[in-house]
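Annex B. Sample input.
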Amino acid sequence: MQFTEQFDVVVVGAGHAGCEAAMAAARMGLKTALFTLNVDLIAQMSCNPAVGGIAKGHLVREVDALGGIMGEITDAVGIQFRLLNTSRGPAVWSPRAQCDKQAYRLKMREVLESQPNLKIKQAEVAGLIVKEASGSGLQASGLSALDPNCDSGDNGEEVDVPAARSLKPEASRVCRGIRLRDGRTVGASAIIITTGTFLNGLIHCGEQQYPAGRSGEPAAVLLGESLKQLGLRGCRLKTGTPPRLDGRTIDWSRFELQPGDVDPTPFSFRTRRVAHHDSQVPCYIAWTTPETQRIIRENVHRSPMYSGQIQSIGPRYCPSIEDKIVKFPDKTTHQLFLEPEGLNTHEIYVNGMSTSLPVEVQLAILKSIPGLETAEMLRPGYAIEYDSIDPTELERTLETKKIAGLFLAGQINGTSGYEEAACQGLMAGINAALKVKNEPPLILDRTEGYTAILIDDLISKGTNEPYRMFTSRAEFRLHLRIDNADRRLTPHGRRIGLISDAAWADFQAKQSRLQAMKQLLEKTKLTSMMLDHIHAVGTAAPGRPAEQSSAAFDLTNALGQTCAQLLKRPEITIENMVPALRELDPGFFAREEIRANPRESVAALPSEIRNELKSIETEIKYEGYLLQQQRAIERLKKAEQRAIPDWFDYHSVSGLSREMQETLLKIKPRTLAHASRIPGVTPAAVSLVHVYIEIQAKRRQQAVAL
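Annex B, continued. Sample output.
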């Protein structure tokens, strides 16, 4: 077939997944095209203009460590930064940033347009061009919703849809390009679909409903129908968004101020200082009232979720305001956050008030909240239903099992959130590029990152609700911290070509610096003068709790111990040791701005130095737990190495129920460890499979010998 244009990789959809996928493929040296319905809305933050949060911040750090761009963009346009969960252990510390919505979109487009090998195209993708892997002709199913009746094969013959559909669903097929609505065809060796909520999107606001991908944007109906014709299992999911308000009509004096961190922690390991370091804007905390609850209860029957108008499943962990009232009837108040959408707009996002109630009910709800009585609504909240693909249809590379060369990433795989989309987009872009280059794929295991956990959960378990990442999903979360994401993943990014020489040199210098400081702490014996410094700093530290007062700060038995031994005490932090460490290793602090008062600098260390010191402290303080987890990680890796061969026949395993056989055949686990994580697959079943792998292998050897 003659294509209008030819690329190595084509990415469909320019949301957070699509941007990462396109950048990765282009930076790996491949000729890449990014197709979007509107180039002015690249990386549009259609819900909350914020990046990060609990566990989501971990994902952004991992994207950055591999060479992705979300972290750097956020550091450039973030208008408020907060490090969450610092009152808890370091495993759950997570960065979060409120972004300037318009600036994020513009900055992302600027970065994409400046990337060599990447072309941005505005056009509607109507279908995929799929061939049989044998190359004997086109597999017409799903080629185009515009012209579903026929298409030309390589030999010029027409292949009709009924004939194509008669082939087995598992027939090996390969995706060779896309068809645009205007009739043009674009060829590619790999296609990545990242359509977000646009596939057959349907918006609900009260009794009203209308097709849309987002408010004011058309749905991708043609492509949605095309994917259905390809035989990929799908489902309908739902998400929602709250109303936006005019900040000039809000009584801000009625709300609790929520400022950003004084010295923000950047998302990117390559960022030294965030752009709006000294000009952060506050957010505010609001509360619903019993009157809010009454209004919602009286009108809940008008919500599409409860009237039966919406049949699909929404995100359990980001419920609508009406969901909160119905499911938690005893709770009379609910927390809301008023968050600015940018520096050059008065638009305010009401975080926590996602709703699909009628507009007049939304207005009544707002007026029931103290401080919002006179607030004007700029945009109403709404719910949106959309098509997604069952992620058990995917390999670990995010390539579809049934169609070679076709990758899926983002909300189309059943996830929710910008961060979950970005990490999938990056991995899909990397693996699509590696496939085109005929190089081995990059497959991370669950011990290496939350990115791997997300992908493994999706392909092993599927999802019947929008999937959201939590730190509790990780077996080894103390090992998977935000501070060591670069140590875990940057070598992978370097190997595949996403980490520049300068970034790699900085990474190596940092690792050497951390190792040297850790060794210094482990070998340096405490002197009486050092203990005096530590005691003085500890008792003078601002905000120190009463239980850590000078009376509890007993250092009498510490003389002669190493700094590392002292640091293992729960009441001692590495900040206590800063004056001593500055004398022992002045080079480590050479990046610090000179301050007149050394003691003041203890409390106000620059974020770069402070975070490096906290990383060292974590490695020392939790050494026993980390060693214990490392042994468990090694056991898991051994289980992961017990591969299930492609030729393995589950039907011949005596003792496996028919239901178990169907489940294993559907997922086709690659290892025994993978099989053990599939819902419904028992340890006994895994043991049976293990035994029968040996039995079937011997039978195959005997058959070959004969």
